[in-house]
Amino acid sequence: MLLTLMPLALSEAMTRLLYLAGGFLLVVLVVVGLIFVFSYGKLWLQAYMSNAPVSPFTLVFMSLRQVHARTIVEAKIMAQQAGVGTDPTTGINTRRLEAHYLAGGNVPRVIQAIVSAHRADIDLDFDRAAAIDLAGRDVLDAVRTSVSPKVIDCPDPEKSPRSTLSAVAKNGVELKIRARVTVRTNLKQLIGGATEDTIIARVGEGIITAIGSSMDHLNVMENPDRISKAVLERGLDAHTAFEIVSIDIADIDIGENIGARLQADQAEADTRKAQALAEKRRADAVAREQEMKAEVALNRAHVFLAEAEVPRAMADAFRKGNLDRIGSNGAA
């Protein structure tokens, strides 16, 4: 009897355990489902309704990878709604968006730049946009500048203490010029290309060189467009992140007559040199005069010495008796 009841008891116990395990598992699934709904349900539904579906497990794994899920999902939705999310050339998918986010990139700004470029019919894929963003450049501003060129003052009053460029024509007249350079971004050379400072420096150098090669400052003032054309022909935007659209001379003022001032300075220097030479010659003459006076005094001293020798010779002759002989010979 006991042997027949034992299997029944074991089966009932196993059944209860299975019911308990199933109930516990159901409770866990319900709790997990509620947590997912409260945490990711709205986001998942938004992506699904926007035709940019994201797997629920992907959303959970994003959190485990320390990725802000809302940023990735909203970026994907933006790309999908703009018509660039499904383009195979742009390669916009969840995994690549996560990789760019983990690399420290600005995902929303990259997507906005791609959308703006797509609207303006500019060739910009995700790889290039992400590379520009990771290089530290503002990719959205670059696209906007490529669509709407911006104007740069040369020289830049915010970075230079001078408000104008100073150049001297061959006739020596100084011209003070302020130029405005219209540029647009060259996306192909944005990575590794020179910045606005290089453009300003090259344009300033080109303007100064063009004016310096002009024979007369009046020619420059009559035809300032010749300076612009001469500067543009030099290809100043090579190896830069910009393409120069135009160079416009905004203002020209006449400065000092550098040539006349240099000539006056040279004449004054020549005068001082001549005065110095004259002073030197006068000093040489005075020194020569003093030398001649010294020579005269020396000769006089020699004469005095010679005169002093005469009495001495006479005394010697008298002592030796030669003086009487000289007198007798003279009398005879």
How would you sum up this structure, described in words?
This is Flotillin-like protein FloA. It comes from Pirellulimonas nuda. With 332 residues, the protein is α+β, with helices and mostly antiparallel strands. Among the domains are: 56-147, no CATH class; 150-258, 2-Layer Sandwich (Tetrahydropterin Synthase, Chain A). It is built from twelve helices and four strands. The chain has helices at 2-49, 56-64, 69-82, 94-102, 107-119, 126-134, 139-147, 196-212, 217-222, 224-232, 258-320, 322-331, and strands at residues 150-154, 165-168, 173-185, 242-257. Strands 1, 2, 3 and 4 form a four-stranded antiparallel β-sheet that branches. Strand 2 and strand 3 (173-185) form a beta hairpin. The termini are far apart. The model has no long low-confidence stretch (mean pLDDT 79).
Defining traits:
single chain, alpha+beta, four-stranded antiparallel beta sheet, 65% helix, 11% strand, FloA
Stretches with pLDDT under 50, minimum 5 residues: none
Number of strands: 4
- CATH topology of one domain, by name, is Tetrahydropterin Synthase, Chain A
Average pLDDT across residues?
A: 79
* Sheet having the most strands: 4 strands, antiparallel
| Helix content class | 55-70%
CATH homologous superfamily identity of one domain: Band 7 domain
Rg, nearest Å = 51 Å
End-to-end Cα distance, whole Å, is 208 Å
Order of helices and strands: HHHHHHHEEEHHHEHH
> What is the CATH top level name of one domain?
Alpha Beta
SS-derived structural category: alpha+beta
What is the number of helical segments per DSSP (H or I, 4+ residues)?
12
Described by the principal axes of the CA atoms, the overall outline is elongated
Strand content: 5-15%
